Amino acid sequence: MKIGIIGAGQLGRMLALSGYPFGVEFLFLDPSPDAPGGHVGPILHGGFDDAAKLNELAARVDLITFDVENVPVDAIREIAKTTPFLPQPDALGTSQDRLAEKTLFRALKIPTPAFQAVDSLADLVTAVDRVGLPGILKTRRLGYDGRGQFRLRSARDIEAAWAALGSVPLIYEAFVDFSREVSVIGVRSTRGEIRVYPLAANTHEDGILRHSIAPYRNAGLQKQAETYLKRVFRRFDYAGILTIEFFVRQGRLIANEMAPRVHNSGHWTIEGAATSQFENHIRAILGLPLGSTEAIGHSGMVNFIGTMPAVEAVLSITGAHFHGYGKAPRPNRKIGHCTVTASSPAARDKALGKVLKAL
Ligand code: AMP
Question: How does DSSP classify residue 92?
Answer without folding.
Answer: H
